[in-house]
């Protein structure tokens, strides 16, 4: 599935919720279900700066696709990464680089997009894209 | 009713607003206090009627603005029972005040001199001293704290010696609310000839400090913690020290005479007030102290203590909730965590419910390292908070817990 159609699926899912409570409960569930990062990758090098909670992201190339695993010590942050990973993991690096991130706004998480917000959603997206750029360079 | 909180709340227009569709419950007062109409009006009036640069104009506006600014200095002097008005240096806030002193002491410290700092300092009262130690070769030593968040005074008395030149301590801890025994610290420090700087930023909204009685050498506060605007604060320094320390910044206002060969500095307080100050802020700072004094610090303290006791007992009913900072003597600050839940998650849910708290390390990472936690949720109460707001907080925390566990 393309990044765009996954994003549309996520938008559809979130459109079923009436209020913030349901949205957050869903995110918390996603966070709890997030496949954990392998402990060996939970290093200081893999910590994303700019988050009030700790966030680790690891990327690995499988064939020509980039697979992300991640973890956080805060569950809402974990839910947000789970959404990002669902949209961007297992995709070609170039597609990740080209993808836009408007869907975050559309699922009602706009408040988390502010660059000054302590959870660092912007830093997370930037980090995923940086990994994609790095691996794309390798593939070239 | 002894303390009419409902009437007091009408002074604060921001308390009427909604956040995320809910009535705002503002419990982040230790970060910044809200501003009453009495102060907002002074700020508006300044720009409508009084705005001019001070201390140098011959024209009427400049004279009036100067008078208002200097009147504010006298208000601050009286509020803290300071002997001389020129011992009040108006700064941009506590951080500026501390850096001014740290910079000034560069020339008076040498290798092997010791600086004592408490274990519960804000980063702004740690980093400038570390920088000072790097410049001078002096050694930074830490007064430890116990599990309740109180300084271990036996250790303090062991640490202090003839080598100690400076001692720094906050009057009240921003992260824990502990009121520190500064009288004892000041007395013991003076016995060995050390100067003491007390960071009063967190004490000022709760305690009216008598600086002559305390005999402290330096005391710092920020106006925005006492219902004033941001960007202005006070450094109190004993005349002896302020005369001895070199100027911090060069510029206009702080000079007596300038030639390219030599500049002589202005007298106190102008020696430390280079450039155009925050004139409006200074005047509003004075108005803010007037406002707080009109309510009365004794009554404020009694009421805030009731809020603290009620909130503490209600929050502790929540299973798994732990309060950090349980000193006998503390202000209305409650730092807490719930087992297995990250403070950031609780803060996010509370925000959705219109409740403003602070989460994180509160610029006091050494305290978080001491307790081995990433941070806390901090609810800090002011005299304009109500018992009903405590109930909203407690319900909010319960709801967050149910969602997050």
TrEMBL record, chain A:
SUPFAM superfamilies: SufE/NifU. InterPro entries: Fe-S_metab-assoc_dom (IPR003808). It comes from the Bacteria. Pfam families: SufE. Residues 12-129 form the Fe-S metabolism associated domain. Belongs to the SufE family. This is SufE family protein. It comes from Croceitalea rosinachiae. The lineage of its organism: Bacteria, Pseudomonadati, Bacteroidota, Flavobacteriia, Flavobacteriales.
TrEMBL record, chain B:
Residues 25-393 form the Aminotransferase class V domain. Keywords: Pyridoxal phosphate, Transferase. Belongs to the class-V pyridoxal-phosphate-dependent aminotransferase family. Csd subfamily. Catalyzes the removal of elemental sulfur and selenium atoms from L-cysteine, L-cystine, L-selenocysteine, and L-selenocystine to produce L-alanine. GO terms for molecular function: cysteine desulfurase activity. Gene3D superfamilies: Aspartate Aminotransferase, domain 1 (3.90.1150.10), Type I PLP-dependent aspartate aminotransferase-like (Major domain) (3.40.640.10). It comes from the Bacteria. It catalyses: (sulfur carrier)-H + L-cysteine = (sulfur carrier)-SH + L-alanine. SUPFAM superfamilies: PLP-dependent transferases. The keyword Iron-sulfur does not apply. The keyword Kinase does not apply. Its cofactor is pyridoxal 5'-phosphate. This is Cysteine desulfurase. It comes from Croceitalea rosinachiae. Its EC number is 2.8.1.7.
